[in-house]
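Example 256, ligand NAP.
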Amino acid sequence: MKARPKGSPESGIPDLRLAPAAVRRGPLPFVFVNMAMTADGKIAPAHRRFVPLGSPRDQAHLYELRARADAVMAGARTVDQEAVALGPGAARFRRLRLRHGLAEYNLRVIASGSGTLDPNAAIFRRRFSPIIILTTRQAPPRRLAQLRRLADAVAICGEAEIDFRAALRWLRRAWGVKRLLVEGGGELNGALFKAGLVDELHLTVCPFLLGGGAAPTIADGPGVEKLVDASHLVLQSIKRVDAELFLVYRVPPDCP
Ligand SMILES: NC(=O)c1ccc[n+]([C@@H]2O[C@H](COP(=O)([O-])OP(=O)(O)OC[C@H]3O[C@@H](n4cnc5c(N)ncnc54)[C@H](OP(=O)(O)O)[C@@H]3O)[C@@H](O)[C@H]2O)c1
């Protein structure tokens, strides 16, 4: 852990705009996204409360992927949910992490641009590894102070939206994050795809059809209007286990 950026003067919270050039231009982590979706591409019903779409096999798959990541990241609306702690799971998965040369417990990263994250969220009661919050100048000072008390680190990563390129470089430089697993939701994934920061997509297609025009999908937000601007994916592997399909897509580096 080195080269932490200078803090913003009023709060002591690092502001990446003030970071040394080496942090702003340094290498990015490898970013892989893992999502479970229905056959109609939804990741939750329109009410957006947590619904376990995946089987126990898919749950194990999630922890196997976490066992290959230095850090796991999710958006504020995902972390608000009771079931979400972003941890490494049972002892067998923690041993797997150690065999992969990683720390026993992964870092946990939350994106919350305006700091609306629920301070009572379950993740803050499960203190087994550092929690890092990425936010912006939109977060009011009182919110920032509250987040600072809850998390091990808070970083200001932009004015109105999180500059994920800068944020990810900082995570690599300051926290040693070489492999970052992203677990949604749709808005966070959409921002990362749009910024061209995703290297790999792991998708579990679950045998349900939820419908609902307002139900979240694996990549929400404004999206793109033309196919030429879409993220182009290269199918790497496909595996069927009972009623579920496990897909891996690579996102080529020159992808729009
Ligand atoms: N099936 C699955 O595998 C799976 C996995 C995860 C989640 N889910 C579901 O997905 C739903 C949640 O997804 P969601 O899309 O509503 O929310 P989300 O992506 O989890 O979180 C959205 C929040 O993250 C912050 N954020 C995201 N992108 C940002 C950016 N570019 N700049 C600044 N802040 C940014 C904002 O926080 P602020 O409001 O604080 O600015 C935003 O409100 C839930 O229903 C959950 O159950 C499903």
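Summary: Residues 1-10 have pLDDT under 50 and may be disordered.
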